[in-house]
Design brief:
Layout lengths: L1 H27 L2 E3 L7 E3 L6 E3 L3 E7 L8 E5 L4 H7 L20 H10 L3 E10 L2 E7 L4 E8 L1 H7 L17
Antiparallel strand pairs: 1-4, 2-3, 4-5, 5-8, 6-7, 7-8
Length: 175
């Protein structure tokens, strides 16, 4: 009888822990982001610095628990032709999956559209935080999606390896 009670208690505790872990990963650490100029920028091919672009209908989320949790959806009235001539276009980009409840951001579809050449990836802000780049994919109809990716320098430093000569010096305590 005591064995059944202990097994039942273990099952209840395990289920509660599973539910708590799910909630913490999917909901608890995300905050909605209100649109700021620094949220909607692309890197200029001329200056090499991020410049604000026109946008509307911004919806974004972020988390203090990880710099990779940033996602945003918005629309830009700028033409794709103008954007590709003015801002740094990336060869490839891989969107990170967003929580299901943030339904404007479908990473699988955006990634497939980038591969198919339907959406064009741009450098939004390089090293928005050390080792992290903001990437923006823009569609011909003006839909745009932003997320964060670890860059080459970030991968090296976060793995604990020495900083390569062509990378910026990481901030104190990041390696």
């Amino acid at each position: 009888m005591l064995g059944r009670f202990l097994i039942g208690a273990l099952v209840v505790v395990a289920l509660a822990a599973g539910v708590a872990m799910y909630y913490l990963q999917i909901y608890a650490f995300y905050d909605e982001v209100s649109a700021q100029v620094e949220d909607v920028q692309l890197v200029s091919v001329v200056s090499g610095t991020p410049e604000p672009i026109l946008f509307e209908n911004f919806k974004g989320i972020d988390s203090d628990s990880s710099p990779l949790r940033y996602r945003a959806c918005y629309q830009t009235p700028a033409s794709l032709a103008m954007l590709t001539e003015t801002y740094v276009v990336l060869d490839t980009a891989e969107p990170r999956v967003a929580p299901d409840w943030f339904d404007c951001f479908d990473a699988a579809q955006i990634g497939a559209d980038i591969v198919a050449g339907v959406a064009i990836p741009f450098m939004g802000v390089e090293n928005i935080q050390y080792g992290i780049n903001r990437i923006v994919a823009v569609y011909p109809d003006g839909r745009a999606f932003a997320w964060h990716e670890i860059n080459r320098c970030g991968e090296i430093v976060f793995d604990g390896d020495p900083v390569p000569d062509d990378c910026p010096t990481p901030p104190e305590g990041s390696n």
